[in-house]
Write a structure and sequence with these properties.
By secondary structure, the protein is mostly helical. The chain has one domain. 67% of the residues lie in helices and 3% in strands. Strands 1-2-3 form a three-stranded antiparallel β-sheet. The protein is globular, with a radius of gyration of 31 Å.
Length: 429
């Protein structure tokens, strides 16, 4: 049965919610007041005008990519392992030099305390900052390296002139130049490729790179030169430069490395010792590689125990620096050595993931150059300790003692973190 139509209610009749006719004007506004309860309005106003410190802190470390957290965690783990091994490997030399077993560790720890915040700061820097300041970094690095080579401020050590001493503070400009080189070629190669296509003019950004490499060659640091040549070739590869053009800088670099090896008696003795008969004595060029091998062999599978190395008692030169991996193998055994190698393999995988997810050429080139710098140098160091290559004098990134190397490596990771943090959100601009 159809119900009859309802008549329009009169003002004198009470409404269904119990509002008297005298408050008819309030009745029209009541639903509006009831839609947002007083407690909800207070909460919304409080949220709009109140900033939580916890929220602000989490925003600092927020990232859009899991690669960010994986790269950050792996790097921090390597730094932690490095501090432990520097504490062990440098204790004897620190006591002989400074009358303090912990001095080498304290210096390295101070650089780590400064470097980790710098890495996190670099991860928050916008991409436009690197584009704006890359040229300044390169020019400043070249000027510092010229002071190393041509001024009394340069310091010789182990046949290399690669340190700069200013007011009692000693550092290596070459380590800073690695980062500057990666930024420079990563920013300039896409510009020249877009402008000149596939002609030889795309190699113009390599002119500053050539100047840097020549200055370091004059200082005699062949190991650093090999790392920088590898970085440059990696940048050309990830930029998509034709392989025929890549042969030009590769040929020039190989010729320069060969000439520097031939004119240096110290390097020739190391190379001939590596290429010749196996070392059967512990003198001359055989001393360091032979004692490094003995240290690795004595560790076995599980090692002699953390802090129980015998090679560090002035038997193995550069035990806390170039040959720290030998101390890792001696004290932590094969298992500890494999863990360190696995962490660098993990770094490689993470870098490649970032490169694969990159939406612009600059991210690919800079990340690829930094990957070859850190991971390539790590395996170069490990190959020297395992006597797969002649002694070159390159440190193990994040693990070896050395303040400038640690700072530059951490900032380099920070640059890649800045790319990984924003992947999927915006392009490099």
């Amino acid at each position: 049965m159809t119900s009859p139509p309802r008549a329009r209610p009169k003002p004198s009749v009470r409404s269904s919610v119990g509002i008297r006719p005298a408050t008819a004007s309030a009745t029209a506004a009541a639903p509006v007041r009831e839609a947002v309860p007083p407690r909800s309005r207070l909460t919304s106003v409080s949220a709009a005008h109140e900033t939580s410190p916890r929220t602000s802190l989490s925003a600092v470390f927020r990232a859009d990519s899991s690669n960010y957290y994986m790269l950050l965690g792996t790097t921090l783990l390597l730094v932690f392992i490095g501090l432990i091994m520097v504490l062990s490997a440098s204790s004897v030399d620190s006591f002989l030099k400074d009358d303090n077993f912990f001095m080498g560790f304290l210096r390295q720890g101070a650089y780590a305390i400064a470097g980790v915040p710098l890495m996190l700061l670099a991860s928050r820097v916008p991409a436009t900052f690197w584009r704006k300041w890359a040229r300044v970094f390169v020019l400043a690095g070249i000027a510092l390296q010229m002071l190393v080579v041509f001024s009394p401020l340069g310091v010789d050590s182990g046949g290399n002139r690669n340190w700069l001493a200013i007011g009692g503070f000693t550092f290596q400009p070459a380590e800073l130049l690695k980062l500057a080189l990666a930024l420079w070629v990563g920013i300039m190669l896409p510009v020249t490729m877009e402008k000149y296509g596939t002609t030889w003019r795309v190699l113009r950004p390599l002119v500053p790179a050539a100047i840097i490499i020549v200055l370091i060659l004059v200082g005699g640091d062949l190991g650093t030169v090999l790392v920088m040549v590898a970085m440059t070739m990696a940048a050309l590869y990830f930029a998509g430069v034709d392989w025929k053009l890549m042969m030009i800088p590769l040929s020039i670099g190989a010729f320069g490395v060969l000439m520097m090896a031939l004119i240096s008696p110290n390097r020739m003795s190391r190379i001939l010792s590596f290429l010749g008969a196996p070392c059967v004595d512990d003198s001359g060029a055989c001393w360091q590689p032979l004692h490094g091998t003995w240290a690795m062999a004595s560790g076995g599978i599980f090692g002699v125990g953390l802090g129980n190395s015998r090679a560090k008692w002035s038997w193995l030169p550069a035990a806390d620096n170039d040959y720290i991996f030998a101390i890792v193998g001696e004290e932590l055994g094969l298992i500890g050595a494999i863990v360190v190698i696995a962490l660098f393999i993990a770094l490689t995988v993470i870098f490649l993931r970032i490169i694969r997810a990159a939406e612009d050429p600059t991210t690919r080139i800079v990340t690829g150059a930094i990957m070859v710098w850190l991971v390539g140098q790590a395996f170069l160091n490990i190959a020297v300790v395992l006597r797969l290559m002649p002694v070159l004098g390159v440190p193990l990134p994040f693990v070896s003692a050395g303040g400038t190397a640690l700072l530059s490596s951490l900032v380099g990771v920070g640059v890649v973190l800045s790319f990984a943090r924003t992947q999927g959100r915006k392009k490099f601009q």
